[in-house]
Amino acid sequence: MRALIYRLKISLSHARIPVARILQRNDWVAVRAQRANESIGQACQHESVEFLSLGDYIPELDFEDNLNIPPPPSDRIWVGFPELPGLNIKVTPTYGEKHYCYTLLEDFLAAKIKAELKRVVVLPAMDDQLLPFFRDWVIDIISSTRERTHAAKEADRQAAESSKYVPKVTIENPNRSVPAEIKNRDHSINNTDRSVKVPIFYSTISVASAFITVTVIFCVCIFVPPVPQAQSYHNFADRRSLRQLIPSLSFINIPNALDVLSNIPFLIVGLYGLYLLLTPKTIVFLTSFEKFGWIIFFISIAFVCVGSAYYHLRPYNSTLVWDRLPMTVGFSSLVGLLIDERINPILGKALFPFLLAAGFASCAYWYYRDDLRPYILVQFFPMIYIPMLLLISSSVYSHTLCYIYACTLYSLAKLSEVTDKQVFRLTLNTISGHTLKHLLAASGIAIILYMLKVRVIL
């Protein structure tokens, strides 16, 4: 048998990673050594194929090489699951002087492992197609090795009990899984029947609640008569120009100055959000689609500044459409991102373009038909659905309470908008409700950006 020598000492910088399937502790995974000149099929045929107990504590990964030939840098280790024959995970090590650090850069993993001494880390991972069903389940990192004697396994298990890195399976939200019996599995070492819990990522309650909410709001829009845009909406309380506010700047004439300039925070938050998103290793994501969705969101926030400022310079229906268009993109993208994060990634990714199209269509329908009902649906659905979704579902990220804070601030912003003149009078003609609306809404977006910056994978 020509095999390779790998000796491994693992230290953890992230204790847990998402995996495709949580096997019970007495289930087995197969470890295969593949050489540079071998295909996957050849690697599965020779004697390096071993079955390993997932729950065992194995401090070293050994493949003895009778020929003592140093392994080439392109050698790989494959990890396979007997229950999922088509699932094999390739791990290619990166080398350093005394140790190496590498991060599995697949969209579905966020785990950084430091391997000291020699060569290879073997981890369970997941197939991209399986990701949507298993993202709520996490498992502590477990090292694996070739099959040993029963006595050696017992010694390893005893060593694990005294180690601070005790490998164990940790299941989040066990109530959201259903048992599935996998029978008559032909394992070369153990041919017993064992049950595997298969997690259901999406919650029936969350999907049903979304359907009911959309249905109720849609019915309201159908049975409520058309809502035209009142021309009095453009009659804002604070019409002071910059020349009136600051006489020394008389050479700059900006009408409705505070309503125009109060949009600058949207530009700041939007551009800073794009900067963080485009800076590597700044914000944690489980999928590349999440990053793309948040980029769309913060681009729309930056354009809220442009569209809203343009509208307030000359407030008419023809300019109001450019104010509302980026807002609908922001609302729609946020709903799609939450569906991806808390219900089902495939569903969120599939619905994302349709949600954006619905946002565009709501603005177009209002502009050409003078009917605000679709726009009201797009604007107020997130305010209702986001808090409800946070209550009935769980997330793989921390700091999700920031969504509630953001929704609260946006609700206050809408309240300030409808009490524009009253706020202006209460503040002794200092600041209008519409100006305050801009500041409160931008603060809500800033809270979401803060959440993205500090959150971690649970």
Question: Can you summarize this structure?
Answer:
With 458 residues, this protein is of the alpha+beta class.
Describe this structure in words.
By secondary structure, the protein is α+β, with helices and mostly antiparallel strands. It is 45% helix and 13% strand. It is built from 14 helices and 11 strands. It has a 4-stranded antiparallel β-sheet with strand order 4-3-5-6. A 3-stranded antiparallel β-sheet has the order 1-8-7, with no helix packed on it. The chain has a two-stranded antiparallel sheet with strand order 2-9. Helix 9 packs antiparallel against helix 10 and helix 9 packs parallel to helix 11. Residues 1-202 have low confidence and may be disordered.
SSE layout and pairing:
Elements: E1 8-12, E2 16-18, E3 28-34, H1 40-43, E4 50-53, E5 76-81, E6 84-91, E7 99-103, E8 112-117, H2 131-134, E9 138-140, H3 150-161, E10 177-182, E11 194-199, H4 204-223, H5 242-245, H6 257-261, H7 264-278, H8 288-313, H9 317-342, H10 345-369, H11 373-392, H12 401-418, H13 420-426, H14 433-454
Antiparallel strand pairs: 1-8, 2-9, 3-4, 3-5, 5-6, 7-8, 10-11
